[in-house]
Amino acid sequence: MTNPIRFIFALHNHQPIGNFGHIFEQTYRESYKPFLDVFEHYPKLKIALHTSGSLAEWLAEHHPEYLDRLAELVRQQRVEIIGGPFFEPILAMLPSRDRIGQIRLYSHWLEKRLGAKIRGLWIPERVWEQSYVRDLVEAGMHYTILDDCHFKTAGLEENRLTRHYLTEDDGRTMSVFPGSERLRYLLPYGTISEIIDYFARFAEQERQAVVVHGDDGEKFGSWPDTFDHVYHERWLHRFFDALSDNADWLITCTPSEVVDAIRPIDKIYIPDGSYREMGDWVMAPERQEELETIASEMSGHPGWHGLKKFVRGGFWRNFKRRYPETDEMYSRMMAVSTRLHNMINLGFGGAKIETAKELLYRGQCNCSYWHGAFGGVYLPHLRNAVYAELIRADNALDEAMEKETAWVESQAADFNFDGRNEVRLANEHLHLLVSPHQGGMMYELDVKSIAHNLLASLTRRPEAYHRKVIAGCGDQERFGSIHDRVVFKQAGLDRRIRYDAYPRKSLVDLFYDYETNIEAVRNGETAQHGDFVHGGYDALVRKKEGRIQVYLSREGKAYGKTVKIDKAITLSAGSSVLEIAYRLEGLPPGYKLHFATEWNFAGMPGGVENRYFHGPENASSPHSPRRRYGDLGTVLDRYDEKELALADDWLGIDITFSTSRPTNFYAFPIETVSQSEGGFELVHQSVAVQPHWYIEPDATGCWSIELRLAFDTSLARRRERDAHAFLRDAAKMLIAQEASALSK
């Protein structure tokens, strides 16, 4: 007789902070709603469901009827709601206070909205560290689900992965379930008979077996090619039919039912790790390629099955090393978290503090902090959204402190935890971070009124999957997991791959061939004749009342000769203008140099009409009528001008370069070739603007230039005022209508 086994069918539904509204809606219609439509017709089946807080908030606003349906299924005890940190952060990157705070906040939200008792949590991306346990138990959690590969790295064999375990840290204990990797690939891609046979093997081998599926709900409808398969071809109906037909031995249940009915099989301590693919993605491209080659060569070896469980990929936290841009976001997030925590300890409280806390939590959403089969850090709208939440949180803390109307401040500290000091400069309009030891570059530039970091840029670098792009081996017709598909969303991507020799940030000091041209610069084909890009600058902060200057200086080599560069960044209280001064010394008299300083502007994409370059019609008269030079994807090569501006009407910002002497401007888009769940694609990352000069030094061997960057957000402010006026008038109209109705 077949032994009865328990099957936990757990789904994880998530959309990140900053994702496009139409993606939320499309995924709702292709996955979340149709899944529930089918499931409701099988009253004897049970599932466990985790919905991230960012998605749940959207559902509450746009489809509250979906949450009402979930609440009814919870009442019927057919769905167990799994909790977790509210805005889906990787727990490894949070301080304990934020881990506990996010989990408790979301449990309260779910209990209030769905009437659910939250006992377990979803570990975002299954990135696990054993030290979580203390915080998870402190937050009220009793269980979680990880992949079976986590347990295999702890030394367990396949036949020991059909029950839950107890794990512990600092004397706190909780249960942990192993989720089947095989089931992750079978659902929904395998045949129904394959899946039932898989369950049957466990039923033949063990009494009280528990088999767990824990994976993304989006693969049931919204992952490529799955909607027709799952719903039109009725795969999900047939799967639920099979579960119902075999209910005498294959029992669907919830995690809490298992925890309450069956004792843990043993105690276990699980090594730090994540699901298998994540461990591969965090490694350097050459290591990924090496591992892939080894796996391919060994696949036919009789000993490989027993050996591969000992093969592990990398450690999730090293995404911060692999992509410095994620480390910049992480460091900024930690600065806001620390500032908030310190203010609470000093007795600050009230609405502004609570607002700052929620904005901080939203800025911890994980998706833009890493990259694999999903777009992740390569998607500008996700990076921009994270920075927007963190900047708004900082703004709320400024308001809680009731700072003066006009102020300016600076701070030197190790903001990015690299053992060296960076410099922070801020006033009520702008916030910027400068790294003296990295070429004196500016790596963050926040325009606070629109909560936008203009330096949320991305440096182009090799990726292991670029081999597939260059080979052009697409298989658009293939149906299967997103981990196996090779689809090109645009033609000619192999010709668009570029790698950068330096970070695409600002205040990057370059020495070019005298005879170079825009195409050579754009394609990285012109030689660099200086050592200033990566060299360390000495830094000094100078303060006057209402005015602070960061002074940077370095003596290095240019064209084989010793040259000194002094550059200064000045910010004044009440000003939305950055003043930049350059002075080059030690230049040989009569020697000609080609010098440039690169600036990058992120979140201002090309190819859109309302995002464009412009300048005065008459170059000698800055106040003459304006003339457009093309959208922000245009390649510009302009000579002997004293002004160039970039406008983004969607953001509501206009950025104007003005210079003290005639200047040449190169400008061109920075685009990456990257992969996402939809395939390989070209993504606009930033607009590079390079003021450059053909220098002939004076008799003392010196040359200097002053630049002024003005950030005008009057369009955004005007829109905000109009929106407030509309809401105010609408509220007055509603009150008047209610008063009229009452009088009748």
Task: Describe the structure using short key phrases.
7-stranded beta/alpha barrel; Beta-galactosidase, Chain A, domain 5; 12-stranded antiparallel β-sheet; 5-stranded parallel β-sheet; globular
Descriptive account of the structure:
It is a single chain. With 744 residues, the chain is α+β, with helices and mostly antiparallel strands. Among the domains are: 5-273, 7-stranded beta/alpha barrel; 491-712, Beta-galactosidase, Chain A, domain 5 (Distorted Sandwich), CATH 2.70.98.10; 720-744. The protein is 33% helix and 28% strand. The protein has 21 helices and 26 strands. Strands 15, 16, 17, 18, 19, 20, 21, 22, 23, 24, 25 and 26 form a twelve-stranded antiparallel β-sheet that branches. β12 and β13 (441-447) form a beta hairpin. α4 packs parallel to α5 and α16 (324-345) packs antiparallel against α17 (351-362). It is globular. The relative contact order is 0.08. The mean pLDDT is 93.
